[in-house]
Design brief:
mainly alpha
């Protein structure tokens, strides 16, 4: 109770510039979702604002949860971290069960919650960051002992990684692996242990990417999309066209051609292609600048922490958001494989939007 009262007193110290840029970026995303999905909404639902209204509902829910989480003492998450691990494994098992998990596009990644399709991996990204930050902040006295101070969370991470691959969702699995790896890197683990773990992590991702013909084809299609212009390369080729026609200033808000059925589901993972087509390089500079600002504020919050748990958690949240940005922009531009990772706060999607807002709520609470 004392900690909760203390949080109420400290909330006036919340990082307001960070909050403003988060809300501004979310508002920008809402505008671009309407612009990029209006044609699809009209054709499929007879309402050009269909996707806009759904995203608005999720964003309002996300803002409400952000406000609630900003008042909850971050110490509580450390105590609940074992429960988060149990919930993560349970959710990943449930999503694979027939009748519970929902299959879309040859992937079983969702659970139907009535008003929305919920993607458990989005929440598990946050749960695993909390667990890793809690574990390594408590094990500093034995951090140099690999078996006791380093290994236990990695075994759980391996189970999570394999369960997510069963969906299959290599992009989310890799994100969780790299996000948790950043916390391990920041926790004071010996360099030789880091090199060994990094090698194992990279080899694991490479092995599972190469072990499936479907995953390999998806991952390598970005190298030469023109070899399959009507197949795996179709989406990337149309992304190139959108980006190429935008120029410096773009064709104008709402004037995208690619969103008229050429770029599949342009309001989701490839929404940045529409941003570039309509707003040009200026739109890209705005979006990237906003994310860079978030990154610097997140690092500043982590550096200001006097205790290790919030420091590690702030670092984990900040860089996992940045990893998603890199994965998404890399895919849209053809510099990285297409993994289906959404652009935080901008891409359409309830699970991603809500969990991103909760994550930022925790970061703001730490800043306070």
């Amino acid at each position: 109770m004392d900690r909760f009262t203390g949080s109420l007193n400290k909330i006036k110290n919340i990082d307001l510039p960070l909050l403003v840029i988060i809300l501004f970026l979310a508002g920008f995303g809402l505008m671009m979702i309407y612009s990029s999905s209006s044609t699809l909404g009209y054709l499929n639902y007879d309402a050009s604002n269909h996707f806009f209204l759904k995203q608005l509902q999720w964003l309002l829910l996300g803002c409400t949860l952000l406000a609630i989480v900003a008042f909850i003492p971050y110490q509580l998450y450390s105590k609940l971290s074992p429960l988060f691990v149990f919930a993560s494994i349970t959710l990943l098992i449930l999503v694979l069960l027939p009748g519970i998990g929902v299959e879309r596009n040859n992937s079983q990644r969702w659970i139907q919650l009535g008003f929305m399709l919920f993607q458990p991996t989005e929440l598990i990204k946050l749960f695993m960051l909390i667990y890793f930050a809690a574990f390594y902040s408590k094990k500093q006295e034995i951090i140099n002992q690999f078996n006791r101070g380093v290994l236990p969370p990695l075994l759980i991470l391996a189970v999570i990684f394999l369960l997510i691959l069963r969906q299959p969702d290599l992009g989310s699995a890799a994100l969780i692996l790299f996000g948790c790896g950043i916390i391990v890197l920041s926790s004071g683990v010996k360099l030789r242990h880091l090199l060994m773990l990094g090698s194992i992590g990279m080899l694991s991702v490479a092995y599972f990417a190469l072990s499936s013909a479907y995953r390999l084809e998806r991952l390598t299609s970005f190298i030469n999309p023109f070899s399959s212009p009507s197949g795996d390369g179709y989406q990337l080729i149309n992304s190139y066209i959108a980006i190429g026609t935008g120029g410096i200033t773009g064709n104008g808000l709402g004037r995208s051609i690619q969103k008229l059925g050429f770029l599949p589901e342009a309001h989701t993972d490839f929404i940045m292609a529409v941003v570039l087509e309509e707003l040009g390089i200026i739109g890209l500079i705005f979006v990237v600048s906003a994310y860079i600002f978030i990154m610097f504020r997140g690092v500043a919050i982590a550096k200001a922490c006097t205790h290790l748990f919030p420091k590690l958690l702030a670092i984990g949240i900040t860089f996992q958001i940045m990893l998603q940005v890199v994965f998404n922009l890399g895919a849209v531009s053809g510099m990285l494989p297409i993994t289906g990772v959404p652009l935080p706060l901008i891409s359409y999607g309830g699970s991603s939007t809500i969990v991103s807002m909760i994550s930022f709520g925790i970061l703001l609470q730490i800043s306070a």
